[in-house]
């Protein structure tokens, strides 16, 4: 495995930074009341990619400005060769040994991250969410249908997915209002309308489609079409879901918000951390078989901070627990001829590990509310309470460096009165 | 009820035209290899709205061109007051009695419809499909669960919906390739991958959101936010659906294509045809109650034409059979805080009537394939065969005029080999 690539920006060489030269994730930022600009994280700074393009120092397309927009979609449209070329030239600009003139130009076109506000890094075309973590599906199935029938009959054959709502995807730091919805609990004789009392997180990774396709594609093609990854919190109202989801799936339970981390970590940066999906219990059909390792070793954790309190880490798991990779999910998504577009976002499904403290949702952690969690403060939680801040974090650990995502944060505010 | 509004364009005064002056639906067209332009249907002509705007004859916004794009989204963004004002001024230009100079200018900026190719009239932001026709839900439920359990417990309380795939929405006339998918039929011991053998239509209306919203809205607000309607064919692979849809709903079964008719018929044009949803079997929660009639009386039919053969009309029904209106569906869609955007498309759900020949899908018409339909030629059909052309038609009938949609056509071509 490669080691740390040294940069002349000192903070990028710290072993605990999320953003060494090996990473170079893409985001969108603003300073004070300024315009939204495309930026690249390096150590504790953000390089102003929009500024470098306008100044002619680093251009993705010699003919057209693609970074004069508040998203990376136009850049993604240029395709994998341009992605690789741009990353190589960006790496050169920031590498130890870059000449003084280069360093001065980059400093001119960069800002301290602490001064910046981060925004959605890309425009979400459509959002699809999967249900492809075996431990999660087994836990949820056991609660609802018993251990014998935990996994649906199709689960080991299909990466089960459903379409979500792109308009509800927000960037880390956006407050999330507790939703209202139609509810019918076990003690209700008729349905009622009110705030969700079982509001939850789902710890997921999001894969971003960078190359469009118009018909069925292979798993290998799907792998090449994925531009990068973010952390993803698929906020879920369990009580709304329980009443609405039969027969056509979750709808309003999942449409309040989906929070993503602010930096697109590229597939290129994650390349050294590729790992295989787990052994198959049943052979997959050929169209779903992976030609090589297409999952990643990314350590993940979830923190819960009550209003005014301290954080408790409530779960630690790893993206390598998934039964299906994003490439398999994307290939399956195209089987019927469904066109995929640049900016499509695919949620992995909740990532739980085999142990109790590796579960990626409160539904699982509190076993449907029957075994409330105890926080470090002594407070307990079955589901999210108003004022709680949930933080997802993730990083791939290299030798002397790590590829981090930056936190994926959201605070739940009270339901509208 | 109002009668025909006479126009100086004679073909608009024929009692059987879909496009009298009372209608004025919005579409996008091109002639030969020319640019895509926004147009308005009137009789057998298309008025070039992009040209009228550029010439300063009829502008929606005095400051900015909104029709120099291949869609009506920018026009919709201007809001209901502009929609009404534009429609009034357009009506004046085309009314009997318009002066000679006006008539000459309009003729200059119009083309015979027969010379034009029609394109998608708007850019679909996101697509949601509902399941809100009671006869359809009862028929399908009876086939799958028996007559006693036909309607799911939530059905009379919630307009059940699921998110569809906007990228697969196409305009009338686009061929539809029979999809492949993962299948496991009653005779299969393991799943297999192959072409759908039970490919079907769903006769629906599509409502187009013209005003964005960021939080929950009332049914009355939802009604005001709907810009117009199209016919919608939600092509469905029943065998893919049967294997994939539990527990999270239909996914690849519905993502091959959804065909819409080419003209957006405005809510303004349909105003005289408002009608109430049917009597409630169970009271709706207040947030879903309609303050007035919000459904429309629109006669619908479906024709099936085998390759090289003649058409058989296989179903006749009416939009007034729906249990929930589009306004109720849109209001429900926002309950959890889900943001809605200009260009969102809401499918009504399959529109079936109480009689056998009023069913809006082959699944229902052939009762799951057990009672194949006999076409006028003597051929039979359980589901769609390669080369079949399916046509949806719809019109609201006034006194001496009708508000028509233009056909919603699609021919099914063989699966990829």
Please tell me about this protein's structure.
The structure is a homodimer of 417-residue chains. Chain A is an alpha+beta fold. The first copy, chain A, has two domains: 10-119, Fumarylacetoacetase, N-terminal domain (SH3 type barrels, Roll), CATH 2.30.30; 127-413, Alpha-Beta Complex (Fumarylacetoacetate hydrolase, domain 2), CATH 3.90.850. The first copy, chain A, is built from ten helices and 27 strands. In chain A, the strands form seven sheets. In chain A, strands 6, 7, 8, 13, 14, 16, 17 and 22 form an eight-stranded mixed beta sheet that branches. In chain A, strands 9, 20, 21, 25, 26 and 27 form a six-stranded mixed beta sheet that branches. In chain A, α6 packs across α9 (326-333). Chain A is globular. The relative contact order of chain A is 0.18. At the A-B interface, β7, β10 and α7 of A face β7, β10 and α7 of B.
Estimated structural class of chain A: alpha+beta
> What is the CATH level 1 assignment of the largest domain in chain A?
Alpha Beta
Quaternary status of these chains?
homodimer
Q: How can the largest sheet of chain A be summarized?
A: 8 strands, mixed
Determine the number of helices of chain A (DSSP H or I, runs of at least 4 residues): 10
Instruction: Estimate the strand proportion of chain A.
Output: 25-35%
CATH superfamily of the largest domain in chain A: Fumarylacetoacetase-like, C-terminal domain
Topology-level CATH name of the largest domain in chain A: Fumarylacetoacetate hydrolase, domain 2
Largest interface, and how many residues on either side?
Answer: A-B, 57 and 57 residues
Report mean pLDDT of chain A, rounded to a whole number. 97
Radius of gyration of chain A: 21 Å
Helix content of chain A: 10-25%
The tally of strands of chain A reads 27
């Amino acid at each position: 495995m490669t080691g740390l690539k040294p940069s002349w920006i000192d903070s990028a060489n710290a072993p605990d930074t999320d953003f060494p030269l090996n990473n170079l994730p893409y985001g969108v930022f603003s300073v004070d009341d300024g315009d939204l600009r495309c930026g690249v994280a390096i150590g504790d700074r953000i390089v102003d990619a929009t500024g470098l393009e306008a100044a002619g120092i680093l251009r993705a397309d010699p003919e057209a400005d693609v970074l004069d927009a508040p998203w990376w979609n136009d850049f993604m449209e240029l395709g994998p060769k341009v992605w690789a070329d741009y990353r190589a030239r960006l790496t050169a600009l920031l590498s130890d040994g870059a000449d003084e003139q280069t360093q001065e130009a980059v400093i001119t076109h960069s800002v301290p991250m602490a001064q910046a506000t981060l925004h959605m890094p890309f425009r979400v075309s459509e959002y699809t969410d999967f249900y492809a973590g075996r431990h999660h599906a087994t836990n949820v199935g056991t609660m609802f249908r018993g251990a014998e029938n935990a996994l649906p009959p199709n689960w080991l054959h299909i990466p089960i997915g459903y379409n979500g709502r792109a308009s509800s995807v927000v960037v880390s730091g956006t407050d999330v209002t507790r939703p209202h919805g139609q509810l019918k609990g076990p003690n209700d004789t008729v349905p009622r309308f009110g705030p969700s009392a079982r509001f939850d997180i789902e710890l997921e990774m999001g894969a971003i489609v960078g190359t469009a396709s118009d018909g069925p594609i292979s798993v290998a093609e799907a792998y090449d079409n994925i531009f990068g990854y973010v952390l993803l919190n698929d906020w879920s109202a369990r009580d709304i879901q329980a009443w609405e989801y039969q027969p056509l799936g979750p709808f309003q339970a999942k449409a309040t918000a989906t929070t993503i981390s602010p930096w697109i970590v590229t597939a290129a940066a994650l390349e050294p951390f590729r790992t295989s999906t787990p052994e198959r219990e049943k052979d997959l059909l050929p169209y779903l078989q992976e030609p090589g390792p297409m999952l990643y070793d990314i350590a993940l954790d979830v923190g819960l901070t009550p209003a005014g309190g301290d954080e408790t880490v409530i779960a630690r798991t790893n993206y390598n627990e998934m039964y299906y990779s994003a490439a398999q999910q994307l290939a399956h998504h195209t089987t019927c001829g469904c066109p995929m577009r640049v900016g499509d976002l695919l949620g992995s499904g909740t990532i739980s590990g085999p142990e109790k403290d590796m579960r990626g949702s409160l539904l699982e952690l509190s076993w449907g509310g029957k075994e409330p969690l105890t926080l470090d403060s002594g407070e307990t939680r079955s589901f999210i309470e108003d004022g709680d801040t949930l933080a997802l974090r993730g990083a791939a650990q290299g030798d002397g460096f790590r590829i981090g995502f930056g936190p994926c944060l959201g605070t739940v505010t009270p339901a509208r009165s």
